Amino acid sequence: MDALKAFDGNYWKTLFDSRIGKTTWPYGSGVWSKKEWVLPEIDSDDIVSAFEGNSNMFWAERFGKQLVGMNDLWVKHCGISHTGSFKDLGMTVLVSQVNRLRKMGRPVVGVGCASTGDTSAALSAYCASAGIPSIVFLPANKISMAQLVQPIANGAFVLSLDTDFDGCMQLVREVTAELPIYLANSLNSLRLEGQKTAAIEILQQFDWEVPDWVIVPGGNLGNIYAFYKGFHMCKELGLVDRIPRLVCAQAANANPLYLHFKSGWSNFSPVKAQTTFASAIQIGDPVSIDRAVYALKNSNGIVEEATEEELMDAMAQADATGMFICPHTGVALTALVKLRNSGVIQPTDRTVVVSTAHGLKFTQSKIDYHSKAIPEMACRLANPPVNVKADFGSVMDVLKTYLLSKESKQ
Ligand SMILES: Cc1ncc(COP(=O)(O)O)c(C=O)c1O
Ligand SMILES: N[C@@H](CCOP(=O)(O)O)C(=O)O
């Protein structure tokens, strides 16, 4: 930090803004365009990058105006990315460092992680890009098919384990302590050095004006800390004069941080994570609990939770306004709705909801919802297809009925 403070805030803003949209290696990456803040000593030839980052800041106009009475609501689409989740931001840094170590002759035979799907997808793709073996520990039958096929297709050694994520996390820590396999989970802070750049991007996209709130879904809890670190570095280095209030949103079925927050940050206790459609945050014993508590305490932060019906309805509502989000973004949107309803977030507050994965990785949850195939869930926004005989008369009848019903709702 002392070395970085040799340059003032305007220097850094000008430097970072000058690199947006360029293809000069490695600055076309949203991560490596901040190389001096991420991993300054690495040789650019050692960097493994898919030009990740620079994700869309979507103005959620209809969701904001119609559902929460806000005009300044934005969704940061970190899931519109190389492997479909924000994990690419951290994985480019970690795999680049492993690439550098192997070129130096260090005995790293491969890279391993435990995963609820997105970390393993990112790890396998970046390792395949660099020709580095990857080994992924996955909880059997607890991740989406899209998330499972990614490491398989990218050539990872895929272990399907009869336990949950927390069990996989324990095993990968034990194994990487015994074998020369480099651990890729967010225990390794290199991941967070990459993920923090999404916070800097948010400030860039608002022309360095600071939003009032940033809402992030939380599981292993590295990402909420990464956002805090990115905003805090911008404040400490003089790019901005404050940081946003952070909100970490959890699924009620896997909510150890939420319970800790509601207890007034008294003794933390892991929970046994229950099944949730937000499967990537089905985590009961998060490795970054201390980092997350630090981030929330130092950003006047809040933790909220979402039931299964709340997160699924929020996902359906967002999709009906033109997005195609994952269930985890539904968790974050539910937190927004609750904080608006309680008056904590004001109608004019500039608010960013971080979307952490693309909805295309979680289509089964949407199919179940729109098929009304979820026991004890109303699925009140279900929009099932209409089966019609393939003749002009039948189609016209159905369409007239549909159009009249739309007209009656105008
Ligand atoms: C899609 C998605 N959203 C949110 C999260 C939560 O991020 P973190 O584990 O850093 O809290 C994860 C991973 O855990 C994820 O895969
Ligand atoms: N949701 C994560 C769980 C592991 O998180 P990490 O940040 O520690 O890698 C995943 O996608 O596997």
From TrEMBL:
Tryptophan synthase beta chain-like PALP domain mapped to chain residues: 49-356
Catalytically driven reaction(s): O-phospho-L-homoserine + H2O = L-threonine + phosphate
Database matches in InterPro entries: Cys_Synth/Cystath_Beta-Synth (IPR050214), Ser/Thr_deHydtase_PyrdxlP-BS (IPR000634), Thr_synthase-like (IPR004450), Thr_Synthase_bac/arc (IPR026260), TrpB-like_PALP (IPR001926), TrpB-like_PALP_sf (IPR036052)
UniProt subcellular location: Plastid, Chloroplast
Keyword Amino-acid biosynthesis attributed: yes
N6-(pyridoxal phosphate)lysine, modified sites: K87
EC number annotated for this UniProt entry: 4.2.3.1
UniProt KW Cytoplasm keyword: no
GO CC entries: chloroplast
GO process terms (BP): threonine biosynthetic process
Pathway: Amino-acid biosynthesis; L-threonine biosynthesis; L-threonine from L-aspartate: step 5/5
MF terms in GO: pyridoxal phosphate binding; threonine synthase activity
CDD domains named among the record's database cross-references: Thr-synth_1
Predominant cellular place of this UniProt entry's protein: plastid
Top-rank lineage group of the source organism: Eukaryota
Pfam families registered for this protein in UniProt: PALP (PF00291)
Cofactor: pyridoxal 5'-phosphate
Keywords (A to Z) from UniProt: Allosteric enzyme, Amino-acid biosynthesis, Chloroplast, Lyase, Plastid, Pyridoxal phosphate, S-adenosyl-L-methionine, Threonine biosynthesis, Transit peptide
Enzyme class: lyase
PANTHER family found in the cross-reference section: CYSTATHIONINE BETA-SYNTHASE (PTHR10314)
Function: Catalyzes the gamma-elimination of phosphate from L-phosphohomoserine and the beta-addition of water to produce L-threonine.
Family in the record: Belongs to the threonine synthase family.
UniProt-recorded name of the protein: Threonine synthase
Species of provenance: Ambrosia artemisiifolia
